[in-house]
Give the backbone structure.
Amino acid sequence: MPLMLPLAVEPFGGYKHWLEAIPGYSQQISFHSLLPAIPPQPVTYEGVFRPTLSRWGIAPYEHQAAAFELLEAGHNVVMATPTASGKSLVFQAPVVSAMQEGATALFIYPTKALARDQWSRLETLADPFELSQRVFTYDGDTLPARRKKAREEGLAILTNPDMLHFGILPNHGRWARFLSRLRYLVIDEAHYHRGVFGSHVALIMRRLLRIAAHYGASPQIIAASATIANPATHAAALTGQPFEAVSASGRGSEMEFVVWLPRALDPSGERRRSANLEAAELAVWAATHDLKTLIFTGSRKTAELISRYTRGSDVEDKIRSYRAGYTASEREKLEEAFRAGEISVLVSTSALELGIDIGGLDAVVMVGYPGSVNSFWQRAGRAGRGRERALTVWIPREDPLDEYFLRRPELLLGSAPESAVADWQNPYLYPDHLHCAAYEKPVVESEPICKPALLNDSFIRRRNACYTTYKVPHRRISLRGSGVVFTLRDAAGNAMGQLDERQAYWEAHPGAIYLHQGESYLVRNLDPKKREIVLLPSLEDYYTQPRASTEILVYPEWAEEVTSGVWVGRVRMREQVTGFVKKRYVTEAVLEEIELEMPEVSFDTEAVWFHPPAQALSPDLVPSGIHALEHAMIGLLPLFVLAERRDVGGVSYPIYPHELPSGEGPVIFIYDGYPGGVGYARAGAEQFGRWIRATYDQLAGCPCSHGCPRCILSPKCGNGNQFLDKQAALELAERLSAIFPTLK
Ligand SMILES: [Zn+2]
Ligand SMILES: [Zn+2]
């Protein structure tokens, strides 16, 4: 079949020339690449799932057949493949085959919406075998009668970790029929299970497998994930079981990839026009040619702004914004109009990233780096209509990761995805889950789930078994957060969302301008006793930045030198918000400094630390040099691990006030921002050579002279980005990357 261009683009010979024809084009294309179509090839497959596949009329692709063969050989399999590569078939065929024999399968999805979506597909696939009535979703919205039916008759049940934890495991007696026949455990979208949530899930999966074993079942596990660096390790971290990984690449159509650098406002390129204005121009151009285009933005506000900037153009009726705040019927109307072609361009937040069917697209435009390589591909993967060539445009903003990829666009297309982390031995999460496990069935010390070193004295031990002293330990756990949670309310008292304690003091202290889903609010009040925060709509022309003091205390007995000079260990983090400043938008002028005394937050977590070679600097530059280096490194950690900048924190000490096992001298700590830690700092330490090299490149290449949001300025700095020296940080990074030249 021939590869084609969309009709409107044909006269231009390709998207590049089409973009260059935008009126007033001024060399914004800073990188262009044409990626070939790599259609996957179907293969002959004769294995045990063949009868089911034949009934559907499906011949599997090579990677799917490879996964089937591993499953037949008894392995647990994890699929790490791009969007739309047919990874679902790898669990659908085995599950529907098992259902025909009366065996059961349990599916874990991170959200209800994703489970529903898969449910309807599985129902259709089970239909030829007259088994569609045996497929159930089981979540918080399932009515009691339906729940009972699912327990009694279900062969395939699609649920989420929350339901498993609160509903199924504590009542497993009612699930004896289902669990005793459990042949497959399917963990889809496994990359979602990461960080604190992933650590909870890792504990829940261990509890599930333990209870399944109690009923005589040892299910085979099939996991599927977006492309991540460590699929087998991550799946093993989530379940405690070994995995074989199968990966695949592929793309049905050609794709042109363009980096669109907003036009420079000064000769050096230090200042550039806003990415939103550039996106609006692209929107108008796409609408003029009726090219179906989806523009992804980071916030509702940006989405609104971009569509507002297109007002007054001839095609304004063909451009709309789409965001989570709209009602369901508003959204359905938009989706329908977009599918029907009445609207050509949708400007959307990530609300449209997953699942929602809006038909084929010609082009995807991303305003800003979406945070990870895998979410970049997830978004880019939405472009492509059949065999027609697709376009992906990326517009960088002023941010360290954007800047990094702006100067290495080929890395965006070719670089290894990040690792996902989850740590079931998190000392804060573990004891409560062990209480749940013990509630579900007394825990014997020889069981793998039992870690005596992590036990506290809230258990009763009799002979060699552990019993819980709690009545309903499951309620003590909040899976989607950690520890104390504050509720955000509007002036009328309606709940708007939640924040954990640390975030609450940091971002939503009294007087703060707080951004919630892209809208700004003024915090009227924070009540630490009732754990409530009251927000008012904000009309202020300033924003706020907290001032805080942070301290790191090392537990020397837990310290470990991961590579020469790079240490990881348990630390205690103490943080107190001590005030805030009001700053004018745009001019950044400080309007006022206000003192506050918020409660101290402290917890044990994990940190990486090292002593930068500061003897190279003149002593007065050491504090600002190590501070700037700390910021730059934090900004780039998300290149190596699936994390956001706010998942970690940092403190740098010109002189550390206590003794350290790593020796003396100025020291930089970068720590996991969650009680107990989940592995971010450790993942950074293990890739320290690459990390420091990337930091050096970033500092050396950033066009600014004294530091900017692309290199060393951090929105999370506790002293408001004061005392930062870019040159000194560059000097340190250069020396450090010379020390770690050979490490990966
Ligand atoms: Zn800079
Ligand atoms: Zn700082």
User: Anything to note?
Assistant: The radius of gyration is 27 Å. Residues 10-38+252-396 form a domain with the Rossmann fold fold (CATH 3.40.50.300).
